[in-house]
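INTERNAL AUDIT FORM
Audit reference: QA-55
Scope: verify that the stored structure record matches its stored sequence.
Auditor: D.O.
Record contents follow.
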Amino acid sequence: FGAHLALLRLVASLVNEPAGVLGVHDVSDGGLGVALAEMAVRSGVGFAVSGISSHAELFSESASRVVVCTDLPDAVEAAADEAGVRWARLGTAGGGDIVVEGLVDLSLTDAIEAWRGTIPDAVTTRWSRA
């Protein structure tokens, strides 16, 4: 419980102070892979990450994890160290591809089309009118 509370406090401090945080996403349903994909699809910005050893690790739903996108990684890492929160630098945001070294390499455009195409337009339209 203590580690989770430290993470929550860290995230709150990062988003409430000008620390160069451009985005934060919880790692929950679908694990790190889904969190990264959702950030990319929502922002329209691809990414390249490394250090993920397997699909099991990529889609693990283990608790108390977040992805932070920042243009000041050293400051975020220092804040995490000060809060006693473990961290790992995964990679960089940018470009038009979704890349997890050795595991995933696909076009962001294809990912966006697949994401938007999962719910038929008729269902989306019906729910948006409610």
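Auditor finding: record pair retrieved intact. The mean pLDDT is 90.
Action required: none
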